[in-house]
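Design request, tokens follow.
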């Protein structure tokens, strides 16, 4: 079974489409007439929309802030034998771009691209999933996270037990 043969010949949709087309035509004529009479502001709506939507305050996790402190920011022009483009946004690097180079895997990304990745509480390289925090800094990173959580004495006891 399929659609009825006379489906396209229904009166209601055809009349509705013709009415809407006619109203659109009338609107274009009136709009052209007002522009000719130099009254284009008369057709503008009373609502003024903002240029950009208001931004909500952004809250970052403490781990994201710590990772940003650990990873250095350098100019692209200071690198030796860099890749052509960022693997996150796929834009080519320019000499004045601020970039972050991961210390474990040596991958390079735009600063804003990697920061956005880290803001989603990701702690691995977006390309190869190697941990962003180097192993030699991991203990300091964990201590600062515990201290930020407000329970440094618990972490201190844990580290003494782990050392035994």
């Amino acid at each position: 079974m399929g659609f009825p043969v006379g489906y396209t010949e229904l009166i209601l949709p055809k009349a509705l489409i013709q009415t809407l087309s006619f109203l659109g035509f009338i609107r274009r004529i009136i709009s052209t007439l007002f522009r000719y009479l130099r009254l284009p502001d008369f057709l503008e709506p009373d609502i003024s929309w903002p240029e950009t939507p208001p931004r909500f305050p952004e809250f970052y996790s403490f781990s994201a802030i710590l990772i940003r402190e650990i990873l250095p920011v350098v100019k692209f022009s200071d690198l030796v034998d860099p890749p052509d483009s960022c693997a996150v946004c796929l834009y080519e690097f320019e000499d004045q771009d601020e970039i972050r180079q991961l210390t474990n895997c040596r991958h390079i990304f735009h600063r804003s691209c990697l920061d956005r990745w880290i803001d989603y509480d990701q702690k691995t390289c977006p390309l190869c999933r190697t941990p962003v925090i180097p192993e030699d800094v991991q203990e300091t990173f964990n201590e600062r996270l515990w201290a930020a959580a407000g329970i440094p004495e618990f972490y201190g006891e844990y580290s003494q037990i782990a050392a035994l």
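Comment from the thread starter after seeing the answer: thanks! DSSP finds five helices and three strands in the chain.
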